[in-house]
Amino acid sequence: MIESIIRGILSLLGTASFVIVVALLLFKMSIIKPSRRKNAMKEEILISIVFGILAIYATLMGSAVGGAILNVRELAPLMAGLMGGPISGLLAGLIGGIHRYSLGGLTALPCSISTILAGIIAGMVSNKIVGKTYLFRGAVLAFCVESGAMALILLLAQPFSQALQAVEQIAVPMITTTTIGLVIFLFLTQPQEPTI
What we know:
single chain, mainly alpha, Arp2/3 complex 21 kDa subunit ARPC3
């Protein structure tokens, strides 16, 4: 069991690293940038498209486990919401969520819903991920969102026995990797010590 968890985390870290590197390259080249200001609709849409595509990539790079897909899809809309606010988070989540739903499977509905919610929640709390504890706050956000995704699977996927089996296999790797990924992204995009 522990071996499969470690293997899952290492596999997901590879995908998460690619998502983060692509986002950072675009960020450093000023192709995408934080846009939580008025009259920034173009930036918000661009962030939505970029991270929506990255959410799809994360799904496609995932592996099937007990009727679910072991992946870091929620990482992309989380990043979109933190960078661009609720609209960017929502649209990126929709892109990733609709794609996930189109693939079908035991967890299609709960996973698509959780992807959309990840972006919305991140966008709504984006102004709170600041101060000296911004990395801790980001970690809590990712942990709670991914844990909520597991809860949705248990609530909505049927039969429950299969849903429980899937969650037992994917929960630890997905929660761990998404949390690590978001913290790394925040650290690299906000290296200066923020002020409260």
